[in-house]
Amino acid sequence: MTGDFCNAEGARDLKNRIEAYWIEKGYDVKVSLVEGTFMAAMRSARTDVRSDMLNGMPQRRAA
Fold this sequence. Notes:
By secondary structure, this protein is an alpha+beta fold.
């Protein structure tokens, strides 16, 4: 994977990839994007990708 996954566009792409991967495996994973504040070290705002997975694993099978 290449790209910047901290900006809004990259985070949206990563969200879609994660959801598609787990749907293909038969799991229902909820992924959300959270707009972060300006980060001086990055010199920009960031977008966090969060999910309902526990220890990197989905919690429920798809219906």
